[in-house]
Specification:
Chain B: It comes from Cohnella phaseoli. The structure holds 2 protein chains of 2 kinds. Chain A is an alpha/beta fold. Chain A is built from 9 helices and 7 strands, in the order ααβααβαβββααβαβα. Chain B is globular and about 60 Å long. Classes of the chains: A alpha/beta, B alpha/beta.
C-alpha cells in the first residue's frame, strides 16, 4: 500500500521525467500528460492489480488509454515500475523506437494500440464482457479525454456497458476543459457531462483529479455501482504542476525550451521539498 | 436441383459445430442475427453470443476487446457497413493491435440488389487488402464457406470475410476432399490456353465460362482465388507463364480488387494480356445478382467472347 504522500511524490517525479522526455524528443503532448499524471499514478501504484514481471498475468486488471496521445506519463510510469528499462525513455519518438507517441502493444504493459480517439471504451467493454462471461474478477479501466467525448463511438460503447451491466468497468474522463482549439465548451459543448453519463446508465462519481483521497475512493469502486459501470469524472488542470503551462491550450503539444524545462523542474522540485515537510507533520496512509 | 442453402447458413452450421467443443468461439451481431443466419447460434449458445444493436463501430471494438481476452469472436454484420463505417476500428483495434477477430461481411457485393449503393459493398476488398496484417477471404460456395469458417477459426489473426446473401450454385461436390488453405488458390480446372481467376460468387461464372470455351476447344484454367490476401502469387505467375493470358472476374469495383491484385503481380513478374471484369466506376444498377452480373459482362457468354479476342492477340487458335 502506497501512502498518499508517496503517490504525490511519485507523480511529481513522473512529471519531471515526462518533461525531460518531451524536451529531448522535441515533441509530445505536454498539457494532457501533466493533467492525467495523478490519475495514472493512482491506478498503477495503488488501485490496479498488475505485475510488471508478468505483464500478461491472466487476472490482471486492464488499462486502456483511449486518449492515447497523452502517452508520455504512461511511458514514464511503466519504465519506473520495471515494465521496460528506464534508459529506453531516451528513445521516445526517435527513429525506429517502440516508444512512439501513442500506446504500442509491442511494449510490455500496453494492452491495446490506441491513438484514434473514441476507440478505447468499446474495446474496454469487450474486455469487461469477457470477464463477466468467464466469471473472472479482473477490472477494466479506460481513460478518456474530455474533447474525445464528441466522438459518437464513445456513446455506442456507453450504451453497451450499461446494457451488459458491466460493473467491472471504470471509465475515467480527464476533464481538463481544454482541447487543441480552446475550451471544450466553445469547441463542442459537453455539459452537463455527468448527467449525460447518468442518463446512459452509468454510476457517475465526480472528483478532483489531483486529489488522491478522492481519486482512490472513486477508482476502488463502491457497492452503489453494483450492476452498473462506473464513470469517474476527474476534474483536472491541463498542464498541472507547471505554472506557465497550466490552463493554456497552446501547451496541448507545446515543447518546453531549455529555460522552460529548467523552470518547470525547479517548480516541481519545490513541490517535492514541500512534501517532505508535509511528511514530517503526518503519516496518513492511503 | 438448385442449391437453396446460402453461404451464411453454412457458416452458422460450422460455427455451431465449433462452439460445441470451444466455448471461446463467439458470434456478435449488430441487429443482424437474422440476416446473418445466426439466430440458431444465439439460441443455442446465448453465453457465446453478443448483440450490440445497430452500432458497427462498437461491434468491432467490442470484438477486439473480447479477442484480447482470449475469445475468437466472429463479427457478423452487413459488409457494406462493416467495411466502411467500422474501417478505422478494423485498422486500429483489429489489425494494428493484432487481435484475433474474424470480420464477416454478410450480404456482400451487390447481394442487396435493388437497395442501392448504400447497401452495396464493392469497395471492401480494395480497402481491407490495403491494411497490414489483415487476411481477406471470399468463399465460392456453401461447402467452401464451411471449410473456410473452420480454417479461419484455427488461424490466429484478423480476417475479413465477405459472403453473399443468396444461395450460390455449388462449385464443389458435397464430398470434395480438398482442404481449405488460407492463401492458397484452388485450381478448379486445368488448362493451358488462358486462365480465368475468380473469387466468391464469380467462381461459378468462371467455371461455366470454361465449359463454354471447352466446347470450342479452348482449354481455360480456372483458379478460385478465395484468399485475396495473402495472395497466392505463385499460382498467378504460373498461370501467366503457362497460359499467357488472364481474365479476372469479381463482384467488386474494377478498382483495387481481385483484378488489381492480380495485375500487381503479373505487371511486375510476368506481364501478359489481362482483362478485369467487375463493377465499373458507377453506382451499380438495380437487379438480381445474375442480372447485374450479366449487365456488366460477368457472364459465361461474355467471358467466352473476351477470351477469344484475347487469344487472337496471343495467337492461340480456337479448334
Amino acid at each position: 500500500m502506497a501512502t498518499v504522500l508517496e503517490l504525490k511524490r511519485k507523480s511529481l517525479q513522473i512529471r519531471k521525467e515526462l518533461l525531460t522526455m518531451i524536451h529531448g524528443a522535441k515533441g509530445g503532448h505536454t498539457g494532457g500528460s501533466l493533467s492525467n499524471a495523478d490519475i495514472l499514478t493512482a491506478l498503477y501504484y495503488e488501485v490496479m492489480k498488475h505485475d510488471p514481471h508478468h505483464p500478461k498475468l491472466p487476472d490482471r486488471d486492464r488499462f486502456v488509454a483511449s486518449k492515447g496521445h497523452c502517452v508520455e506519463s504512461l511511458w514514464c510510469i511503466l519504465a519506473d515500475l520495471g515494465y521496460f528499462p528506464q534508459e529506453e525513455l531516451a528513445t521516445f519518438s526517435q527513429f525506429g523506437t517502440r516508444l512512439i507517441g501513442h500506446p504500442n502493444n509491442k511494449v510490455p504493459g500496453i494492452e491495446m494500440n490506441t491513438g484514434a480517439l473514441g476507440h478505447g471504451l468499446a474495446v474496454s467493454v469487450g474486455m469487461a464482457l469477457a470477464a463477466k462471461r468467464d466469471g473472472k474478477s479482473y477490472r477494466v479501466f479506460c481513460l478518456m479525454g474530455d474533447g474525445e467525448q464528441a466522438e459518437g463511438s464513445i456513446w455506442e460503447a456507453a450504451m453497451a456497458g450499461a446494457h451488459y451491466k458491466l460493473d467491472n468497468l471504470v471509465g475515467i474522463i480527464d476533464r481538463n476543459r481544454l482541447q487543441i482549439s480552446g475550451s471544450t465548451e466553445d469547441v463542442m459543448a459537453l455539459e452537463p457531462l455527468d448527467r449525460k453519463w447518468e442518463a446512459f446508465g452509468w454510476h457517475v462519481v465526480t472528483v478532483d483529479g489531483h486529489d488522491y483521497d478522492e481519486l482512490l475512493k472513486a477508482l476502488r469502486g463502491s457497492p452503489e455501482a453494483d450492476g452498473k459501470p462506473t464513470l469517474v469524472l476527474a476534474n483536472t488542470i491541463k498542464g498541472k504542476g507547471v505554472s506557465f503551462a497550466e490552463n493554456k491550450p497552446e501547451w496541448h503539444h507545446h515543447v518546453p525550451s531549455d529555460d522552460q524545462l529548467k523552470q518547470a523542474h525547479e517548480e516541481l522540485d519545490a513541490a517535492l521539498a514541500a512534501l517532505e515537510g508535509e511528511e514530517e507533520r503526518s503519516g496518513t496512509h492511503a | 436441383m438448385p442449391n437453396t442453402i446460402p453461404n451464411r447458413q453454412a457458416m452458422c452450421e460450422a460455427l455451431l459445430e465449433l462452439a460445441e467443443s470451444d466455448r471461446d468461439i463467439m458470434v456478435l451481431a449488430s441487429d443482424s442475427r437474422g440476416s446473418a443466419a445466426m439466430a440458431p447460434f444465439a439460441k443455442r449458445y446465448p453465453e457465446q453470443f453478443v448483440e450490440t444493436g445497430i452500432a458497427e463501430q462498437n461491434i468491432v471494438g467490442i470484438a477486439a476487446g473480447l479477442a484480447h481476452s482470449g475469445k475468437t469472436p466472429f463479427v457478423t454484420s452487413p459488409a457494406c457497413f462493416l467495411s466502411m463505417r467500422s474501417i478505422e476500428q478494423i485498422k486500429v483495434d483489429v489489425a494494428y493491435s493484432g487481435t484475433n477477430v474474424k470480420l464477416v461481411g454478410i450480404s456482400g457485393g451487390i447481394s442487396y440488389g435493388a437497395l442501392g449503393m448504400s447497401h452495396h459493398s464493392v469497395q471492401d476488398i480494395a480497402v481491407t487488402r490495403a491494411i497490414p496484417g489483415l487476411a481477406v477471404v471470399l468463399p465460392a460456395d456453401r461447402h467452401e464457406t464451411k471449410k473456410m469458417t473452420k480454417a479461419i477459426a484455427e488461424y490466429e489473426g484478423g480476417v475479413y470475410v465477405r459472403i453473399g446473401r443468396n444461395p450460390v450454385e455449388d462449385v464443389y461436390e458435397e464430398n470434395d476432399d480438398r482442404e481449405f488453405v488460407l492463401g492458397k488458390a484452388v485450381r478448379l480446372k486445368d488448362g493451358t490456353d488462358l486462365t480465368l481467376i475468380a473469387a466468391g460468387e464469380t467462381v461459378r461464372v468462371a467455371l461455366d465460362a470454361a465449359e463454354l470455351l471447352a466446347q470450342d476447344g479452348i482449354r481455360a484454367r480456372v483458379l478460385n482465388m478465395h484468399t485475396i490476401k495473402p495472395l497466392d502469387e505463385e499460382a498467378i505467375v504460373a498461370a501467366a507463364e503457362e497460359t499467357g493470358a488472364i481474365i479476372t472476374l469479381e463482384e467488386h469495383s474494377v478498382f483495387g480488387g481481385l483484378g488489381a491484385a492480380v495485375a500487381e503481380v503479373t505487371a511486375q513478374h510476368c506481364p501478359v494480356p489481362l482483362r478485369i471484369l467487375g463493377i465499373p466506376d458507377e453506382p451499380a444498377i438495380a437487379g438480381k445478382t445474375a442480372e447485374v452480373f450479366r449487365h456488366y459482362g460477368i457472364s459465361a457468354e461474355h467471358v467466352k467472347e473476351l477470351a477469344e479476342q484475347l487469344l487472337k492477340r496471343t495467337g492461340v487458335q480456337a479448334k
